[in-house]
Amino acid sequence: MTKDDIRKQILAKRDSYTEAETEEKSRKIFEILTGIREYQNATDVLIYASTRSEVATDDIILDCLSEGKRVFCPKVTDRKASEMKFVRIYSPEDLKEGYFGIREPEIGPDSEIYGEACPKSAGKLHAASVDADREADVSFPLMIMPGVAFDRKMGRIGYGGGFYDRYLAKNKEIPTIALCFDCQIYEGRLPLEPEDLRPDSIITCNEIIGAGEDESQID
Questions:
Q1: Distance CA 202, CA 154 (A)
Q2: Containing H/E element for 66?
Q3: Contact in structure between 168 and 146 (CB atoms under 8 Å)
């Protein structure tokens, strides 16, 4: 099967979930994710804003913000070059409909972009949500990423744009966790190219895959 064949097959399965099923499964994934040390220790969380039948991330974003983590969401900056930046948000309301109807942050003169110098005025604009420990030099980043299909060797097929492949090729130091439903695990080896990224671990509603000593089945 080609990548496109697999995408169609997996997306059809994922789209078949009812809204209630998607919500229930997403909640299970939320509970698993928030219980692992990689998430708990993270200070900077780069996370996708979920759309359509993806694993929902709104509760994760709210949890990060309530725990004092810095939250950055992707903004497509060059479609042709498959480039994006992760822009800091302070509320889910900072996300607006953008590329392909996906919720994105807007970039303005005071935006804080992960990996780039922070505008001096950003702290003044958001003084109520900025404190000393979040402005410390020590940073423990974590990327929480989407995808269409995954295999048990950490293979990943995305939506075909190559945005995450390109971004992570330039930011290899960022640990990555992919979220997906059980139906998105492809039993076999995905047909991948050398440039296709592999997440460090994958969380479904029933297991953690590829997490070393933390790998486990969830009852």
A1: 7
A2: helix 58-66
A3: no
